[in-house]
Design brief:
With about 1050 residues, this protein is of the alpha+beta class. About 40% of the residues lie in helices and about 20% in strands. The longest helix is centred in the middle third of the chain and has 29 residues. The protein is extended. The structure holds one RNA strand of 74 nucleotides.
Length: about 1050
RNA sequence: GGGUCUGUAGCUCAGCUGGUUAGAGCGCUCGCCUGAUAAGCGGGAGGUCCCUGGUUCGAGUCCAGGCAGGCCCA
């Protein structure tokens, strides 16, 4: 005989068992093997860095990254899920710096680059085990054994191939990148680091004169023979020696003002704030008129003809200063770009230590910030200083050593991504984004303002930039593979085995193909984002091997990561693929929101509010967290991670599924139910069976439709609705079918239906909550079924089995039941008390078939249900006099008329007055009754109460006659005995001996129903006195002071 | 400063192309039901739908301008 065990109640224990099952049977591996010949569905793993501990936020994209591959696998697709690890980059270096106690490049050099790099390599695996444990425990099926690792020589070789390809196509070039630079540490800082170190400081703010020396090339002409200067402004006086130009806004209004013996030019909008004392406006002109004006700079460090004149620039604003911006290409990003566009000279009188060089003798050797007062004093002496004052603003400092950062134009290699801007925009339009605004807005906007990609980093731990420069002739060439390196190396043997990292690869020199000289590698490594952005190609070590695998898995059908990857991984994948393969590397891209703490703040290390995922996994289980994330709100919405919220799905949804199964298991075991021995016959399906079978189809349709549109919340909502229907309607109303003895046709139909519903449900749930789905599936599966629910086919809708008429009838029945309970509640009549009659008025054309009406009768415990279009028959309309109208007109006759109106039947009177007034004789008087003299009130017929919602109304007949009263009493007693059984701790199936004693009247009623009572409470014998011993006894108090003493004794097992 | 999202009950969120009295879940409270359930059902309390204008017969919904918060980028 088949036994169905109840499921383990503790979700954590249950999930651990399932994990073991999967491991034992290699379920994941099997799911791949069995789909190997199916159509591909390509997924790319965005690689995490394992040098940090995983936190709750990391789970958010991962649940979707698991859901869709599982779903597609069950639909027969072959979904390769190669894991990946991102391993290079500055964050890793910083961790190691902290560990070994250094914090600058010179210190790293003296520590030894080789030792340092080895430390980095170890560091990236620090939390690998943690990550793997988490991924496995959450039921995320991904191939970690064959994960790609960005630091391997194979991966680097593929990246080299990409870079060399770009180089050969002329897409790599050398330029300057302006970045916040720490002169003490000798390194540029990432924006993330800069953000940590802003402080409010006071700097000198100076306004100074740049005398105009020539108007030959401009529309503007000098006038009056007075000294005329352009007024400019800066908060970094030390950059003035590097001045090479001034920039103005072409379309803004500028004025020339006279003040004392001189004239000054500045923006009209800033006049008030910039000038001191009275000034007379001489003339006004747009900025464009001044373009080409030559001026005398404070320090003339170049003789370049392009220098020291006025240019137009879009970044000039009217917020502060004078609207005339001092340009030093070496010390500002905008400045540098303008310099590139206009061909300005690059004046750089400051060394990498932040000290002035001999190029600027006044301050040579001095740290730039210390030079500020020297420069200001010098300008003052020479009469160039118009005004100087302290200025408070935010300025970045090095977060490590507190040195003020300098914006410094550093040598850098770039990828000419701007050349592919239009292609990328076009490709982006072909990608389906979830949500759409990430693609259209966030990334779209970024692409519109695309800049070239600054690729190189002057660091140690990263993919080395594969460019070698000849020491003799300066020829630059790119190495495109290990073989290429060996072929061109001066020491081929060494090149064959050298690790492709600094410092090892730096030692490899090449023979210059142009001149035969010695070529050395540039010192840079590349931006780590290029590593991960290359995974579409490098994960397969393409083009050196796996050509077929690469072709089969490009582009991806689906990727998903956190929102902040938009300009990170989402962009770098798009950029590299568009350049190299001419196509976007993914078709559907989902961005997830942030994990917030209970106060709605972003989780971050610095705030100390990061949540360890294990705190919830170990209490509520993986499925609970998964379902919480799927069902609570759209993927891209930020989620507050609070205990109550995360826990909710456990009892609300998952336990409902478990209990529905447990219900089945309880009775199926009692009855020895076996689907093979007790097949369900379609002809025996009850209305409930047919209904839930139809719901199974519509739920499947809803889930599949939603998932195909990547709409996870709707899919989850459809499943929740189905589980509610199954548990709280199908099972609830079907309970009596399972209680009956034996195994009749109807019972077999009920078992068959419930079993099938649970099996289909387990498959529907499998991608969402893989553990619970498996737990439900395992005990139910038949001999020929797959070993795991995850090896089953995902349900497909069978439209022919949908009975929408029945579904909407049942919908109505459920709302009628709700109304009925409401009416009973209002009338204070318990459901246990049978009532005679309920009337429903529904404007819809839904006619309830007899079987559905029966369900309602049972649910509401009424003898008869009537569905009518019009409730008229149950309403009493009464006519009432309207004294406002009668009083003034009839005076003393009023009361008589009123009495007469009250005496009339409302409908007769309404008919009589339909065409106008009537004249009647009342006690010898003739009185005119007008329509407005009568008001009509509608009231329910005696004994009825009403409940309504929206368009439906329900009337409940609350009159209880003697027969109903007896029925109610009997049911009450049965109920009390059942409660007593439970209190006594008896098992559901225990047979008992029942004894009771009560007054004569009640005794007579009970005697009448004795057989029913015995059947209901599983009594094999009934005694009418309390003599003898009872295992459990109690006195029941009923209404009106009636009492029944009962005694229960269990029968020994036969 | 630019882009973008969000603002609805104590909390978490629904409210489709504008259409009666703004909903659900959790929590609170009163009652019911219970031979599966940590469940279910019903009643109640709880809302200036962030603010201000505008369009419209009608605005939580559309438009404009603010305010607040978040994120990405400067």
């Amino acid at each position: 005989m088949k036994r169905y065990e109840k499921l383990e109640k503790d979700p954590v224990a249950r999930e651990l068992e399932i994990l073991e099952l999967w491991q034992r049977t290699d379920a994941f591996g099997e799911s791949l093997r069995q789909t190997e010949n199916g159509p591909r569905y390509v997924f790319y793993e965005g690689p995490p860095t394992a040098n940090g501990r995983p936190h709750f936020g990391h789970l958010m994209p991962r649940v979707y990254k698991d859901l869709f591959p599982r779903y597609k696998t069950m639909q027969g697709h072959y979904v390769v899920r190669k894991g990946g690890w991102d391993t290079h980059g500055l964050p890793v270096e910083l961790e190691v710096e902290k560990e070994i106690g250094v914090n600058s490049k010179p210190e790293i050099e003296s520590y030894g680059v080789e030792r340092f790099v080895q430390k980095c390599k170890e560091s990236v695996w620090r939390y690998k085990a943690e990550w793997e444990r988490l991924i496995r425990r959450m039921g995320f099926w991904i191939d970690l054994e064959n994960a790609y690792v960005t630091y391997t020589d194979d991966y680097i070789e593929s990246v080299w191939w990409e870079l060399a390809t770009m180089f050969e196509r002329g897409l790599l070039y050398q330029g300057h990148k302006t970045l916040p630079y720490c002169p003490r540490c000798g390194t540029g800082l990432s924006s993330h680091e800069v953000a940590q170190g802003y402080k409010v400081v006071e700097d000198p703010s100076v306004f100074l004169r740049m005398p105009i020396v020539s108007d030959a090339a401009s529309v503007y002409k000098l006038d009056g023979g007075v000294r005329t200067s352009l007024l400019t402004w800066t908060t970094t006086p030390w950059t003035l020696p590097a001045n090479v130009a001034l920039a103005m806004a072409a379309n803004e209004a500028y004025v020339e003002v006279e003040q004392g013996s001189e004239r000054l030019v500045l923006a009209k909008a800033l006049m008030e704030r910039a000038l001191v004392g009275d000034a007379r406006i001489v003339r006004e002109m747009p900025g464009r008129d001044l373009l080409g004006v030559l001026y005398e700079p404070p320090y003339r460090l170049t003789s370049d003809a392009a220098a020291y004149q006025v240019y137009s620039a879009g970044f000039v604003n009217m917020d502060d200063g004078t609207g005339i911006v001092h340009i030093a290409c070496a010390f500002g990003e905008d400045d540098y770009r303008l310099g590139q566009e206009e061909g300005l000279p690059f004046v750089q009188p400051v060394d990498l230590g932040g000290r002035f060089t001999e190029e600027f003798p006044l301050c040579a050797g001095q740290f730039v910030k210390d030079a500020d007062p020297v420069v200001v004093a010098d300008l003052k002496n020479r009469g160039l200083l118009y005004r100087s004052m302290p200025y408070e603003h935010d300025y970045p400092f090095c977060w490590r050593c507190d040195t003020p950062l300098l914006y410094y134009a550093m040598d850098s290699w770039y990828i000419r991504t701007t050349e592919f801007k239009d292609r990328m925009i076009e490709e982006n339009e072909g990608i389906s984004w979830y949500p759409s605004h990430v693609g259209e807005g966030r990334l779209g906007d970024f692409l519109e303002n695309l800049k070239d990609w600054a690729l190189s980093r002057d660091r140690y731990w990263g993919t080395p930039l594969n460019l070698w420069v000849c020491e003799e002739c300066g020829t630059v060439s790119a190495v495109k593979s290990r073989a290429d390196l060996v072929a061109r190396a001066t020491d081929p043997e060494r090149a064959r085995t050298v690790e492709l990292h600094r410092p090892y690869v730096d030692a490899i020199t090449l023979r210059c193909e142009a001149c035969g000289g010695v070529a050395r590698r540039v010192r840079y490594v590349i931006d780590t984002w290029f590593d991960s952005g290359s995974m579409h190609t490098a994960q397969w070590h393409y083009p050196f091997e796996n050509e077929d695998r690469f072709r089969d898995s490009f582009p991806a059908d689906f990727i998903c990561e956190a929102m902040e990857q938009t300009r990170g991984w989402f962009y770098t994948l798009l950029a590299t693929a568009t350049i190299l393969h001419g196509e976007a590397p993914y078709r559907n891209c989902m961005a997830t929101g942030l994990g917030l703490d209970e106060n709605g703040l972003k989780m971050s290390k610095s705030k100390g509010n990061v949540l360890d995922p294990w705190t919830y996994i170990d209490r509520f289980g993986a499925d609970c967290i998964r379902w919480y994330l799927f069902s609570s709100s759209a993927p891209w919405k930020s989620k507050r991670i609070g205990e109550a919220a995360v826990q909710e799905p456990l009892y609300k949804f998952l336990d409902t599924v478990r209990n529905t199964y447990d219900f089945f298991a309880l009775y199926a075991t009692i009855d020895g139910y076996d689907p093979d021995v007790h097949p369900a016959r379609e002809a025996s399906f009850s209305i409930l069976d047919r209904w839930i079978r139809s719901r199974l189809q519509t739920a499947t349709r809803d889930v599949v439709t939603a998932l195909d549109a990547y709409d996870v919340v709707s899919a989850a909502a459809a499943l929740e609705a189905f589980v509610d229907d199954l548990s709280n309607w199908y099972v609830r109303l079907s309970r009596r079918r399972f209680w009956r003895g034996g195994m009749g046709e109807d019972k077999a139909a009920a078992y068959g239906t419930l079993r099938e519903a649970l099996l289909v449900l387990s498959r529907l749930l499998a991608p969402f909550v893989p553990f619970l789905a498996e737990a439900v599936y395992q005990p139910l599966r038949a001999g020929g079924d797959p070993e795991s629910v995850h090896l089953c086919a995902y349900p497909a809708v069978d439209e022919d089995s949908v009975d929408s008429a029945l579904e909407s009838e049942m919908q109505l029945a459920r709302s009628i039941a709700a109304l009925g309970h409401q009416a009973r509640n209002q009338a204070q009549v318990k459901v246990r008390q049978p009532l005679a009659h309920v009337v429903i008025a529904s404007p819809g054309d839904v006619a309830l078939r007899a079987e559905v009406q029966e369900l309602i009768e049972r649910e509401l415990n009424v003898r008869r249900v009537d569905v009518v279009k019009d409730l008229g028959a149950y309403l009493t309309e009464a006519a009432a006099p309207n004294f406002r109208s009668i009083g003034p007109r009839l005076g003393a006759s009023g009361p008589k008329a009123a009495a007469w109106i009250k005496g009339q039947s409302a409908s007769a009177l309404r008919n009589a007055l339909a065409t106008g007034s009537v004249t009647v004789a009342i006690g010898g008087e003739t009185v005119e009754i007008r329509p407005e003299d009568v008001t009509y009130t509608v009231s329910l017929s005696e004994g009825y109460v009403q409940a309504e919602t929206g368009s439906d109304r329900l009337l409940l007949d609350t009159r209880i006659d003697e027969d109903l009263r007896r029925q109610g009493l009997f049911r009450e007693v049965v109920h009390r005995i059942q409660v007593a059984r439970k209190d006594a701790g008896f098992d559901v199936t225990d047979r008992i001996r029942l004894a009771y004693e009560t007054d004569d009247a009640l005794g007579a009623i009970l005697a009448q129903h004795e057989e029913e009572i015995a059947a209901e409470v599983l009594a094999v014998s009934v005694k009418h006195d309390m003599k003898g011993k009872h295992e459990y006894s109690q006195t029941i108090e009923l209404d009106e002071g009636r009492r029944v003493a009962i005694g229960l004794t269990r029968m020994q097992d036969a």
